[in-house]
Design a protein that fits this description.
The chain is α+β, with helices and mostly antiparallel strands and 60 residues long. It has 1 helix and 2 strands. It has one domain. It is 18% helix and 17% strand. A two-stranded antiparallel sheet has the order 1-2. It is globular and about 30 Å long. The structure holds zinc ion.
Length: 60
Amino acid sequence: MDKLKLKPCPFCSGEALVVKVKLCENPYVVVCQSEKCGASIGVYSGTREAAVEAWNRRGE
Ligand SMILES: [Zn+2]
């Protein structure tokens, strides 16, 4: 079981990545790596793991 495994983007099936975008308590967000898509979950999480889980739930 790999909790950090990101599902592909639900919009374009592209590769997604966890990025740290802020210096606050919830800095992590998952974004699609495709420039044309650029989908983001729009939910910021406190840990990398939580960001991955939120993204994977959305992709189901
Ligand atoms: Zn995408």
